[in-house]
Design a protein that fits this description.
156 residues, Pnp Oxidase, Chain A, 30% strand
Length: 156
């Protein structure tokens, strides 16, 4: 495991993540996912697929779009509410708990899905595959006391 970075829980990190995420979304949308559709450096670091999650704020009612690493599991898509190992669940996850009918975008394709937190059995099955896809998930889990939620997005 990597050592948890100092300052990870600072407010400025939250704002930085929001800014970088917003820029990522704009680039992804402008290019249909050709840029921003994978995270990593080809031929240097393994790349992982990125989708855009469109959800509604549970308090504001505003629409939000969040870029997330994803894993395909048959017809479902699986995402992880890691927030980089920060101590609290990300806002997008809390929004899904309040409004589970959302949309995902992979490239230019949009599809309606229903979000559900994985059961303990599903999480046990999916977690090793998620860590194989993106090893940092294991580090993030070691940095926080909360169990990082795994979210299954099923077609509706």
């Amino acid at each position: 495991m990597k050592t948890k970075p100092k300052g990870l829980d600072a407010d400025w990190v939250r704002y930085l993540l929001r800014y970088v995420g917003g820029a990522h979304v704009r680039i992804y949308e402008a290019t249909g996912g050709r840029l921003g559709g994978r995270l990593g450096i080809p031929f240097v670091l393994p790349t992982v697929p990125i989708l855009l999650l469109e959800h509604v704020g549970r308090k504001s009612g505003n629409g939000f779009t969040t870029p997330l690493v994803y894993l395909e599991d048959d017809a479902d898509v699986v995402v992880v509410a890691s927030q980089g190992g920060r101590p609290h669940d990300p806002q997008w996850y809390r929004n899904l708990l309040a409004g589970p009918d959302v949309t995902v975008r992979v490239g230019r394709a949009r599809r309606p899905v229903r979000a559900q937190t994985a059961s303990p059995e599903e999480r046990a099955r999916l977690w090793p595959r998620l860590v194989d896809l993106y090893a940092d998930f294991d580090s993030y889990q070691s940095w926080t006391d909360r169990e990082i939620p795994v979210v299954v997005l099923s077609p509706r």
